[in-house]
Amino acid sequence: MELPDSPPAVHIMSDWVRVNCIVTQLTFTADGKLVWMEASQRCLRIEKEVLGFATEGSCIRIRAAVDFDEAGCCLRPGGGGGGCMVRRELAFEPLSADSFTLWCQNLRGYLDSLGRPKKLLILLNPFGGKRSAPKVFEKEVKPLLEDAAVKFDLQETGYQLHAKEIARKVDLAKYDGIVCVSGDGVLVEVVNGLLERDDWKSAIKLPLGMIPAGTGNGMVKSLLDSVGQPCKASYATLAIIRGHKRSLDVATISQEDKKIFSVLMLAWGLIADIDIESEKYRWMGSARIDFYALQRILHLRRYEGRISFVPAPGYERHGQPASYSAEWAAPYQDHGEKQVDVISSGYQGPNIKLEELSWRTIDGPFISIWLHNVPWGSESAMAAPNAKFSDGYIDLIAIRDCPRVSLLSLITEMDKGGHVKSHHVKYLKVKAFVLEPGARTDNPTKEGIIDIDGEVLARGKGAYKSEQETLMAYRRLQITVDRGLATLYSPQ
Ligand SMILES: Nc1ncnc2c1ncn2[C@@H]1O[C@H](COP(=O)(O)OP(=O)(O)OP(=O)(O)O)[C@@H](O)[C@H]1O
């Protein structure tokens, strides 16, 4: 709530109503504020704070969600919110039946003009993160959706790739958006499911919302942090209810005729090894990442390989000039390993003539290669501080050589994004990228892991759990970026 500087000049309506048994003037301003006197002047901003309204007899109840430090005592508590947001209610009685009808019509008309979602499909992963999604939904999300009169169908994901199956089949006409109460993994599955549809062009425009309930909540952290809000379910829900949208770049990762789509990150080397191999220490909780990072730095691995990329304007100084080789996209001869289903319909990646672009290349060995689409990789790792949701580029964070002590300090600076300032780190934006991963320098019989959005994309020979099947093989793969292809619900 805010105290307006001057009395509102233009009204949608201004009327005498009863608030808390006291007759007072309530004004609905043309710029969407409800202003009234109750001990002092009070104000609710409809677009920002009002979730919806309900009627009860001759009473109109306005339901709002207000920042705790802005909440005043004039609004009756309507239940607890999450974090620093509180639910509030303004209950008032117009003095005549005609005035009651007019208030309802004007409020409904204004709320309808805001383009907020009316019906959502909610996918909830009961096993994500600390298995808190069902509780988060019941306590923090559902009450706000009910206050806002947003209808929803709730579906729990029952197994890996279930969210992708749902997104492939969902009746788009039934919903205004899909919301994931999960970590980033379910969001990535939804994006892949939508893009595999025959009607992918319209499907991928369906807005996607995120409520943090996983181990990695990088996407929703990036969204909320961009407007200075905490990464909490209540703020994430409010962003969805208010219906603001922003577009999001989608990266296509291809290897011969196989494709997979990513919206968050791809890692090879140190970060991938920490992310994937630390699952051995799951019993430690979130401390497993720090513990295993320390182990990996003490026993540092370097990988042979080469990266080639098309730099964004201003980043052309990195690497050596190269030309695109048609061989990069050519089919590989040995098809001994498991293949993923080839996507023959649906989105096939951006229409870019790669051979016409200016390529650069850097040869290994490498300690770490990390590609990031949004700033935050998790709630505590600001992987790519300059990353933008829809600039059409993906941020590349590459480390070739770095002393162990410096690496340790780089890792500790990652919570604020300070690592990219180090002279050991190459930090640039790329439009297209080719990774040619090789073996470890200390042991050529052992190769590495390629991690995409927290899941293993490829495991090389002798890598951790190398007997397990993966989506792609540990060899050359290509990444291209499609600007703003997907749409997210966003706080602004
Ligand atoms: N019922 C289920 N049982 C097992 N796995 C599931 C289930 N539902 C979804 N999954 C899988 O769990 C994976 C991770 O889910 P999610 O995105 O919620 O969390 P995360 O933060 O990415 O990872 P974590 O599992 O470490 O919390 C997804 O790839 C999804 O396929």
TrEMBL record:
Please tell me whether the keyword ATP-binding is annotated for this protein: yes
EC number(s) on file: 2.7.1.91
One of the record's GO molecular function terms: sphingosine kinase activity
One Gene Ontology CC term in the entry: plant-type vacuole membrane
Which InterPro entries does the record cross-reference, listed alphabetically? Answer: ATP-NAD_kinase_N (IPR017438), Diacylglycerol_kinase_cat_dom (IPR001206), Lipid_Phosphate_FormReg (IPR050187), NAD/diacylglycerol_kinase_sf (IPR016064), YegS/DAGK_C (IPR045540)
One GO BP annotation is:
cellular response to abscisic acid stimulus
What the entry lists under SUPFAM superfamilies is as follows:
NAD kinase/diacylglycerol kinase-like
Q: Where is the signal peptide?
A: none
Q: Membrane topology per the record?
A: Peripheral membrane protein
* Bilayer-crossing regions: none
Give its localization: Vacuole membrane
User: Which UniProt key words apply to this protein?
Assistant: ATP-binding, Kinase, Membrane, Nucleotide-binding, Transferase
Looking at the record, the residues that make up the DAGKc domain are: 115-257
**Pfam families tied to this protein:** DAGK_cat (PF00781), YegS_C (PF19279)
In Swiss-Prot or TrEMBL terms, this protein is called sphingosine kinase
Which organism is the protein's source?
Answer: Trapa incisa
